[in-house]
Each structure stands twice: as C-alpha cells, then as structure tokens.
Amino acid sequence: MIWEWTSRLKLWRVRKVGQRVRVFGRVWVHGDGEVELGDGVVLDARAAPIEIRTAQGGKLTLGDGVRIEGGVSFESEGRTVLGRGVTVRPFAKIIDNHFHSLTGDRHERPEPGEVVVEEGAVIETGAIVLPGAHIGAGTLVGPRAVVSKRVPAGVRVAGNPAKVEPLGR
C-alpha cells in the first residue's frame, strides 16, 4: 500500500521500523540516538507535528501497537521505553533529562535518567512525564499531570505533582 511506503520514507532516520507502522502528517525525527518502533505503531500528526529527538547515546523504544497523537514531543538522552498498546494524547511531553541543573551551575548538564511507561497506559493531553518516571501497566495519567516518580499499575493520577486519585472520580 502507498501509506506503508510513505510512512517508511518519513522515518528514514529511525533505526528499526516494525511492520504496519503508519505515519500521518509531519513527524520530525532528529538527533544521533536510536529510535525503534514496534509493529503497528501509529504516529498521527495530522493535527500538529510530532517531534522525536534522541541525543547520542539516547534510545527511544515504542512497543507494538503504540499510538502517538499530534503535538507530542519526545526528548531522549538516556532511555525511554513505551510498552505495548500505550497511547499518548495530543501535546504531551516525555523527557528523560532535565537539560540543566535546578541549583548551582545551570550550564552543567545532569546525567540523563530513564522513563518507562508500561503496557496499556494512557498519557492524556498536555501531560508531562519527567526523568525517573515509571508508569505502571494500565495507568491513566490525567490531562496536564506532571509525573516524575513511580506510579502503580491500574490507577489514575492527576495534578502537579501527579497523585493517585480514587477511581470513582
């Protein structure tokens, strides 16, 4: 099919592209790191471009069936892994580094961290996932939530910083 050919053309900088990967709209892939896409990944940038940046030594892995929507931004200088079936809604940001220290010399770059989002999790619109975050399987990260720590599986988190909410809300 024609969409398979154009999708692969848009992903020429990606190290590994699985079967049935589909790309809609503009997807910017840049940097010297590694990007791996599993089977059935969908990058839907029709509403806004998706940006994927991996620095040298960084690695971004999107598992089978991951869906990324428009305006999402990835910044990877360490290791970022999204498990099978993860959905990332529009304008969310996932970064595994802080770019500068919060105290002391702001020109000194801290070591990159790691971000893991387990199978079936959903990261809602405008949420920010920071270095050190580990989001459990099936967890829902609410709109505009900021996650920087371990979140258990099967819960809903919201707020800044993200806190577990009762499921009845």
What is the H/E order? Answer: HEEEEEEEEEEEEEEEEEEE
Number of helices: 1
Report the β-strand fraction as a percent range: 35-45%
- What profile does the largest beta sheet have? 12 strands, mixed
* Portion in helices: under 10%
Query: What overall geometry do the principal axes of the alpha carbons give?
Result: globular
Alpha-carbon Rg, integer = 16 Å
Structural class of the helix and strand makeup?
A: mainly beta
Number of strands: 19
Mean pLDDT: 89
**Weakly predicted, low-confidence segments:** none
Kindly, what is the distance between the CA atoms of the first and last residues, rounded to a whole number of angstroms?
44 Å
Describe the overall structure.
There is one protein chain. The chain is mainly beta and 169 residues long. The protein is 5% helix and 41% strand. The protein has one helix and 19 strands. Strands 2, 4, 6, 7, 9, 10, 12, 13, 15, 16, 18 and 19 form a twelve-stranded mixed beta sheet that branches. Strands 1-3-5-8-11-14-17 form a seven-stranded parallel beta sheet, with no helix packed on it. It is globular, with a radius of gyration of 16 Å. It starts with a helix and ends with a strand. The mean pLDDT is 89.
Compose a concise summary of this entry:
The chain has one helix spanning 2-10, and strands at residues 16-17, 22-30, 34-37, 42-54, 59-62, 67-69, 73-76, 79-82, 87-88, 93-95, 114-117, 122-123, 128-129, 134-135, 140-141, 146-147, 150-151, 156-158, 163-165. It has 169 residues and is mainly β.
